[in-house]
## 1
Amino acid sequence: MTTKDFRWLTLLLLVILLVGGAARAQAVPLGQDPVAGQQIFQSMCSTCHTIGKGKLVGPDLAGVTERADVAWIKQFIQEPDKMLASGDPTATKLLAEFNNVAMPNLGLSAAQVDDVVAYLAAPDSAKAPAAPAGAAATGPVAAAPSGKAPSLAGYAPSGEALFSGATRLAAGGTPCIACHSVEGVGLLGGGTLGPDLTQVHTRYGGTGLAAALSTLPFPTMQSIFATRQLTPEEQADLLAFFARAAQQTAPQPQVKLAMLLIAGAGLTGALLVAMLFFWPRQRLSISQRLRQKGSLRQDWR
Amino acid sequence: MNWNTLFFVILPYVALFIAIIVTIYRGIYRPFSISSLSSQLLERRRLFWGSIPFHWGIIIILTGHLVALLVPRSIVLWNAHPLRLYLLELTGVGLGLWALIGLLVLSWRRMTVDRIRVISTPMDFVVLALLLISVVTGLITATYYRWGSYWFTGIFTPYIWGILTFRPDAAPLAPLPFTIKLHVFNFYLLTLAFAFSRLVHIITWPVGYLIRPWQIVIANRGLPVLNEEEASQ
């Protein structure tokens, strides 16, 4: 077999594998199961929404399927970020009504959205067993939203230590500073993969933030924190820390980015300068040495 | 089935499978093609300013990725103090910029030096392009989506272990920004290209050097020549 045949064979193999994999994964379960919807609601939605227990961070969703068009609800749950970006009038009005806290994109599949909407349409129909086995798939079921601030009194300095990673999270979660910034923590600030949290206490309100800390329902965080929830003490300390932090203005990530880049470029420059000391140690080739000595025939130079 | 599964579950297995099988095939049937295809004899100055920064930069950064994969606890403990976190991160940015400069010098050399251009194959340019994407997206991730050394241990260490232990789960990658996904996807493209390009020279570590018997080297150069007659005899 020539090399050329061999390449084509490999390409063919690759295509077969890819198409095969794609075909296998076509079987998606159908949605509209209110029990499954309840589980998703409790783990993903209940930090910000209640059904008939009043507003939290977001609106009370009791009877929402009668108030709004079901197709609209489904589209909003599926892609709240795109819906808000498109300037949908209802979505824009809701955003203003709820302190400009935008609903995160939860990364639910179409079937999961159908489940949730089925549950919202008939919350009483889903009387799930106490410990549903299927809950593991969407993360542990959160405690029912109480709508009250936690009873534990947090200590802000402990919260700061948890935030910066000085104290490890009990369940082994990644410290907040990896992805989030809060003004006053660290010279170059916190991470920028996630949003800045300096003003988060103001945006979510104490109750809303406490609820959010209990399950951390944000899609990027779920993969880490679904199985590594914060302990009640950690939640209380972090809540106290965020309440204290909200008294400052948000940091300027661009300045910190510039500092990081300048420091990095400084290191690069130092490495390049260091290379200068190594160049003369590279041996010249024979032809170069002959050229330098001038003993190479003129027309060969 | 979605793009996430295709790119971050199926593609890595396809790429790894092809890389391993084809490298073994190439090692058996075309052993002398496993080479870095050095062009140092054709051009040395630009090679020095390109190859040294690129290779040292990329090797140290890859080692960092490997440490975060194999001993994530070491990174978490090191990062526990913000100042140490910043030191690690800015070292990464510095090395990344160094590697990027080297890569740009190498690309420029390959395109403008006639002697190098005539011996270049299309695959050499593919490899350069993939490496450029890799370094640039890595730098964007390290600066714009910081602090990568920290969140790598929470998101990518479990993901890569899932791939390596045949329990793949790409769900944690789905909500990540496009640049980070491109960085990962591009790595799998590099894995795919590995066995078909000069990238195979990565496996030519001179480990035999450590256990081979010693050799005697006698240098004649630089010895004084007594006189012309003696030298000619």
Note: Chain A touches chain B through 53 residues (CB under 8 Å).
## 2
Amino acid sequence: MRRRSADGVISGPPRIPFYNNPRIRGVLYQLILLAALIWLAYEFVINVRANLAAQGFSSGFGFLGNTAGFGVSQSLIAYSESDSYGRVFVVGLLNTLLVSAIGIVFATLLGFVIGLARLSQNWLVARLAGGYVEVIRNLPLLFQILFWYLAVLGTLPLPRQSFSVFGQVFLNNRGVIVPAPLFGEGASYVGGACLLGILATIALARWARHRQDLTGKQFPVFVSGIGLIIGIPFLVLATLGFPISFETPQLRGFNFVGGIRLIPEFIALLIALSTYTAAYIAEVVRAGVQSVPHGQSEAALGLGFKRGLLLRLIVVPQALRVMVPLLTNQYLNLTKNSTLGVAIGYPDLFGLFAGTTLNQTHQAIEVIAITMAVYLVISLVTSFVMNWYNMRLRLVER
Amino acid sequence: MFNKDKGSTMKRAISMLGAVVVLAAIVGPASAQTLKAVKDRGSLVCGVSQGLPGFSSPDDKGAWTGFDVDFCRALAAAIFNDPTKVKYSPLSARDRFEPLKSGQIDVLARNTTWILSRDALFNFAGVNFYDGQGFMVRKGLKVNSALELNGASVCTQAGTTTELNLADYFRANSMRYEVIAFGTADEMVKAYEAGRCDAMTTDVSQLYAEKLKLANANDHVILPEIISKEPLGPLVRHGDDQWLDVVRWTLFAMLNAEELGISSKNIDDAVKSNIPEIKRLVGVEGNFGEQIGLTKDWVVRIVKHVGNYGESFERNVGTGSKLGISRGLNRLWTKGGIQYAPPIR
């Protein structure tokens, strides 16, 4: 602040007018730019709506309430042709999430196995894993999806000549059909018993680790856990007189009736996505494991660790720190690659909504905007969860 | 400090300019100038299918032939007196309307059904093929009627009227079904051949065409039921009356020529005819071509280069072709069919 002392001496930093103050100018410019951007977005929307109206196209999201009129081959919720486009959107979204979630699980498991196999001491195993990675990574995913689809369709028989397992599970080129569970009275107790089993296992694991810290004695948590998760619900089932029964699929005319069917499009897409992403995850795993300093393994081996324990307790936990951000990439890729399922007729969000619905309603901008927003949200949620997990893994300095 | 101010002002100015350019580019082709644009460009851009034998398919040298292709060639002949001045844009059933809406193609001649919801957004120029939807099954299934398809799996193309008609038919007859909708016709045919579905459904003319592409065409049969009306025709954008007249009257010219007995074989003699109707058709009398923006001899150009409706039909989809579809409803009204063109006068 500038001061004038009693005898007229001005001291303090020179006072500058507010329009020359760099901070205020900076804020002012940003406000003006923000206002310009908002005006631009507003003009864009108004312009598009006027042009569409001039050509006779309606805009807005009202079309989501119109009747769809077409059937869908796989739906996790009840769907019929007289449902609205909004419901078609939900069906497609659930199908996308289903194949992405299961694909991520399978890809991670397979990727870990192959990645660790490539680092194996066994020369043949390492070369085979290496060959798998090189071949799968270098073929376009669309070709692989088509290959698995035609392979699945080509090897499986027609429904009238299905492979059957004990007369309960059937395999044909319309899919895999398993008996559907029929829930009678008291079935919810069984669900509660499953949950109880899982909670009991978690509590047991905690107690066993605490006991190991105190006394050094190990407890077979894995086996006991399986016993609890299967045993407790089974006991409840038996006590209630087996309220859950199964409805066997029957061949009637062209196809099977009853039971739960996995369509071949789903199976082929799942296999293709899992094997393709697993090749990339295998390399991520290999990078992570190689990033752990070799001294760690040497020390552990010197202490008498077996290779399996070495991997599980020492190498992989440290390798995860490197792997998790890269795994996030692969999970996002898998989710977005699932849109290629439209080439084999898998009814995912892209095929049902951005394909059929867009074509029937001609509302391209709204449909594409919704589809992009949904994929963006799915990807953001996935990366958010993975980043949270990554934070948990970071080195905590003392 | 002075430099920083200048830099940020410049950046702002450039971003504003960029935004204005983007806005200007978004303004679509709402004006009615398609004929002028086509003449200036020197060629017609025609939306066709990705390969449907008989209607629009490229041969092994890349030249397009077919019934819809002939219509595009007739348009080009009428405008430029040269049927080769056409660029063909292959479009799948799912993606055929956006290019027309956005102005990338001038006309869509892609065996598209004339329905109200499409007419509300575009202008249909007429019906060049009266068709209906049917089913194709393997002979080995021993199915003789579509009503025996309860519980069947049916392959179809996504985003077509076929999907909707299929749902209506099975619901109306209280039959269960499983529908698998593919993005392109080729994927649908491949899946049908692999046995993924018991039946394949689309317009009967398409079934005839796709049957040609199957490995053992004789193992398949097209069921007799026609479950819907499918009037197929070319379409153009809304908002351009002159272009609609040009496209519409090209089709009517070919029909009128056949009605009057004028074909590519006798067009040179027809020019010298004394019959008033023929004189008006070939442009010796009146200026009807000029009234819609073409030349007086526009019909002569069409018939000389492409032929009349009957010639085009027989050559591409009729008895003179591999499809072998009979004229049926597509006969002229004077011969028992329903192809009827308004007179040129």
Note: Chain A has a mean pLDDT of 89.
